[in-house]
Amino acid sequence: MAQSKPIERLTQSRVWRSFFRHGWPDNPLDRSLTMTSNIFFHLHPVKVSRKSLRWNYSFGLGIMAAILYGVLVFTGILLMFYYVPSVERAYPTMKEIQLSVPLGQFTRNMHRWAAHAMVLVVILHMARVFYTGAYKPPREFNWVIGVILLLLTLGASFTGYLLPWDQLSYWAITVGTNIAGYAPVAGPVMRELLLGGTEVSQNTLIRFYTLHIALLPASLVLLISVHFWRVRKDGGLAANEAPDAE
Ligand code: HEM
Fold it and tell me: Kindly report the CA angle at 55 between 50 and 59, in degrees rounded to 5?
């Protein structure tokens, strides 16, 4: 009996086949199975139009927003090892991160720049979706999820701004919460809820910290998952069903 090659033995082994449950993708069936059995490819429908794959159709902005979110979670967790959300220790711990923690300044800058970039990229993604008319049925539900994602992204950015507890943060949040207070009917209650009192204090810092590291990121993960699931269920990008789709 002819001896099989090592690569054949590997691809036929039980361990390999427990990961890759299809043959080499050189025929339509295995190509479809490659897409449907992989968690990352699974985001795409089995068949996509060439138009939706052109880089200048979506500019990859949605994926970019998701990657930036990943960077923020990773660098945010590293910062949490040192940062203490107390009015006495917040500013000194930020300085310690910058001046004495190995790669601390780099980590903090990555977190800050990724946060600015995410706000920009999410707004550009929303504009792309609008200009390609992808908000129309059946994608109107995903548009609404998107609007909530935008608000959550802005909320995460706003709450993070207070955490360094320097003059800029203190006064920015004072001004921001004062503006919220002028909203009709719910304004004053909203301001007090955010501040945990009548002015920016320890109560505000701990509230913003909890929103920033727990509530908002958890809501973002949940809604980004729903958003991706909807993209898949709505048949991939809207370009797939446009009359001129190739
Ligand atoms: C955390 C923020 C967001 C993330 C991570 C995200 C991610 C994505 C990804 C990966 C896609 C598919 C590929 C692409 O279009 O680039 C997509 C599509 C879509 N997104 Fe978002 N998105 C976000 C915010 C938004 C916002 C703010 C809106 C609008 C208000 C929105 C509405 C949509 C719609 C309607 C689609 C389908 C587009 C089509 O079929 O052409 N998303 N999103």
Answer: 130
- Joined tokens for residue 198: 């009548």
CATH number at residue 117: 1.20.810.10
pLDDT tens-digit series, residues 111-132: 999 999 999 999 999 999 999 9
Provide the percentage of residues in the chain whose pLDDT is more than 70: 97
What integer best gives the mean pLDDT of the chain?
93
| Distance separating the N- and C-terminal Cα atoms of the chain | 48
Phi and psi at residue 220, in whole multiples of 5°?
-65, -45
Query: Has residue 52 been placed in a domain?
Result: no
- What span, in angstroms and rounded, lies between the C-alpha atoms of 30 and 26? 7
59 CA from centroid of ligand 1 (Å): 11
Which atom of ligand 1 lies nearest, measured to the CA of 59? 16
Q: How many domains does the chain have?
A: 1
Q: Assign 38 a pLDDT band (cuts: 50, 70, 90).
A: confident
Please tell me whether residue 102 adopts helix, strand or coil conformation.
coil
Indicate the top mutation candidate among 40, 130, 143, 227 to test ligand 1's pocket, ranked by most ligand atoms within 8 A of CB.
227
| Predicted TM-score of the model (pTM) | 0.90
Q: Is residue 243 over pLDDT 90?
A: no
